[in-house]
Amino acid sequence: MFRILHISDLHASESDKWKTDSVLREARKKLVEQCSENPVDVVAFTGDIANRGSRKEYDIAEQWIERTCLNKDGLNLEADRLLFVPGNHDVDRAKRSVVAKALEATLCEVKNQDDVATVFNDKASRDALFDRHWQYKKFIKKVTGKSLSTEGAWTRCFSFESSSIAFHGLNSSWLCRDDSDQRRLLVGDAQLSCLGEDIDKGDVSIALAHHPHPDLMEFDEDTFENFLRNHADMFLRGHLHKPDVVNKETSSGGYLEIAAGSLYHGAKAPNRFNIIDISRSLTEVTISTFVWQNDRWILDRNAFADSNDGLGRYTLPDRKSAGASKENQREELTAGIIRTDPFLNAEIGDGEDAKAATDSPRTNLLNRFPRFSVKATKQHAAIRHDAMSRSEWAIENERVLRLFADWGSDPDAFLASLTQRLKNDGFTTFLHARCGNVVSGKDLQTRLSKYAGTSAVELGAALRSEDKTILILDELSFDEEFNNENSSLFATIRAFLDYCSNLSVICVAHGRVPRNHLPSGVVPLTVLDDADTREYLENHETRPVRLDDVFDYSRIRRATGGVIRRIDDFVDAIRYTDFDGAIASIAEHTNSADHDLPTEVIDAIAMMASSEEDDHKRAYSLLSVLCILDHGETLKTIKRIRQQSPLWARHATTLEDAGILDVSPSVASNIEEDSLARSAGGEKILHVPRLIRDHVLSIMPRDYRIELLKKTCSVFFGSDWRVGGIRPKPRSSEAGMTSYIATSNELCVIRSVLLEAASGEELVPCTGEEAARLALRFTSYLNSKGLYGEAYESAKEALSIIGDSHAYDSMANVRDELKLLAAKCARMVGEHTASIRLLKETLEVSKNAGLKQRTKAILIAMALAYESLGMEHEAEETAEEVVRMSGNNTADYLQAKAIIAKYNCNSEGEAIKALKRLMQRARGHGHHTVGDNIAIEIASRSSAVNEILKQLASVRTRHDREYNFVRATIRRIETLLNSNRLSDISTLDREDLKVCYSLTFSQRMRGMFNWCNRVIWELANQSDDEDLFFRLYWHSSFFWRLHQDVASEEKFSRKLVERFPLPISGPTLSPAQLTILRYCSARLKTLSFGPTLVPLN
């Protein structure tokens, strides 16, 4: 969910400070307590921060906001998560100039928006009126670091899941004069026009202003009301000091108006604030109102008269996009499911067909030229199919391939596999020229002449009469000459290609592959991802490594950084130790990377580490923080870790210029440029290559590293992480593949803390117990958010360290809790066998310790896992044991009875009746998750479409948008498709399906992902959505490769080819779609399912 803290009307006053201190101090404690499990995403302050608009009042407000919202001991937010609009008390009435008073009098008499615009759009008039907000402006600048406009409306967008939420800030106080302003205020159409195209940004749109619209002049109230109905889903306000919620829905549009009470109206007054939760589906809103009563903050259970638990629950009015055409719906589904790959957007030219080879004798000139002689290996042939297919296409069609090889990517091994495949295409000669310091066409001619022992012209003549030949130009510089196809370097290469019809050229540059973009046509060769790491290990010629748990391959990739030489080290290590020992041995030998780094990089790091120059010191400080983290991080976050040494963009530039740092765009944390590719215009991600990171850590003093680790924990988890508190800071998702874990840096930090705590060193970041409980709390937090894949990986990481270190021998209780969590999450992601193994390991210990509640939890999880594996006898037997241990009508009892009912009934009808009775009991006793489980089981057994939809609807209307929401959503759409009811699939259904695909993919729920993929494929088929077929296959293939799901990969590869049979005549497919077909063909060929189905020419 997306959580908003809505506060208003603080009325900070110097004279009342002694009264407000206790109220605000307790408010801070209550907020930290309420948001420990579900952190706040945005704070919306809807005016009256001060009492009289004076500087000292804003100083009081700033102190509270700093401690409460920005501090590590508070909500741990970034400053850009604070949103403000001014109220009438934010006007410094002592600043009312003669001009301002005259303008006020004029505006009191206006009758239409044109007259308002005449004043508002005149800069001198506007300045005279808005100068009264001058202390408010200074306060905003000081707190947020940004000059947030008070003179016109503004828009801020925040990413949430695969959607965005837009906030529109409006100034309703720019005409405030005194305490009798009702019906005398203006927002003004001129101010609303400041929103421009941003007015319709966001999947959910929330307007912020201080005053209720009846305080506006009547003609302006109509304008403002129309704006809210047409462009806002919610309107958050203050002013009246009374919390209220009004659902304003009419045939012309609607919105939800939410008013906050006064944060401080008096020491004994019923002060209030709201916490607003927006569901994952962006359709439901839950409001919690807290009130100051008897000198403490409590949930106001009287705020919502019809609520049993004191919470207000509302459904947002119909979305503004509800009338979108079916064509647009298809485009939205396509865009939401798969983010655009930069390569898919690149135009792919037709190229020039390779000319027929001519038979001619070899000349003695070429005998002197070095040959490429690296031997291809099985493990290298099994990886990088995308780069391989693109390379083959470039050679076959354009006869020139530009490769950019990352450090540690082993380009020679890739070239060996490529040349092996090219031999099958008729190439017989592979020449290899090392071209270091070659920067122009003239340099290249000179270098080739030296290798051949003759002139470039005679070399060309020899090549012209040769059979099909590859010329590899290695170690080129990645500069303008390499990137520009019109450079003198490529002019020389083109001259050879035009002259020698049987020649093709491979250009290889080495360095750091830019993380943002490469010139069109350049094929990047990077370190291995999770999928390629697995295939490399399983096909290794020295010692194939096959692991039962797919998550372990991800751990290997993280430990080695995807560097092939490191992966080979792991293969060597596992011959002599177990898995965790091999992982540990890789982590212990970080300084072995030095010889992989260029000398100039090592020298630059040494210079910064020893320099007394301030900028060099700070650049090295920035580098040190980044090396504590496995993954990239924003400068904004790093500044919070190193607060005593301010870091700026120029320090990142210093590292980037030295070749030490990669800078790449990220999803904008507050501005969303495009729903499809959100990488433009956002906060930059700073990333240190793995080899550099290992080198820096190997030379970093231990006390410095421990101090950085402790500060990083405080920023990521809150300042009380050592005593069991945890408040993970909101993180915007990164652009790119959604399979990558969003919490990578958190997992990296926890792993480091666990290892250091168990190191036996005198200086450690915390005790072993504190480290273990941090791991447990974070894993529990991920599980509570429905991030089962991440929670499973977190638990496995922690268990691999806690289980192998004697420092944790006394913490069996924490270890068993982690195992139980890991087992539950393993079942969610489809690892049922692993789930049962973990549960069995903890069951006897729990029984012997007399832990009845934990024993029941283990048994019910085990019964569900047995059921998923089709082991009916074991499932029933385990469920019966739970029933014997549980009281009637408890959640465990009812879930166990539902499992037994499936197998004990004589017919489907009898089983459904029994399940319905149990479902009603579960709902009646508040066990909604159990009720949802049973409802989905009833739907799976029913044959009547309407009955199925009815049961699924009861699940989909619950507020839990996680595991059961995914199952119900996929089942609903599958049912409608199977019933030929495509027209009944609504926009909301499609949006829900987007969420399901992203969640099952990112959390690696293997079985449900394949199910979701099948349903989307059928949806594309019935909708005749050609583009969705291609994008779905392109994205899903990564998941199948990662999990070695050969059957699914083969099935959908063939379905794609059958859907678009060859040969393809005419321009029916785009270059991107043809690229996907080539990739599909390469995969089929590699997996030996059959001959190549798509010609590469």
UniProtKB/TrEMBL annotation:
Stretches assigned to the Calcineurin-like phosphoesterase domain: 2-243
A Pfam family the protein falls into: Metallophos
Residues annotated as signal peptide: none
MF terms in GO: hydrolase activity
PANTHER family linked: TRANSMEMBRANE PROTEIN WITH METALLOPHOSPHOESTERASE DOMAIN (PTHR31302:SF0), TRANSMEMBRANE PROTEIN WITH METALLOPHOSPHOESTERASE DOMAIN-RELATED (PTHR31302)
Protein name (database record): Calcineurin-like phosphoesterase domain-containing protein
Organism encoding this protein: Rhodopirellula islandica
Lineage: Bacteria, Pseudomonadati, Planctomycetota, Planctomycetia, Pirellulales
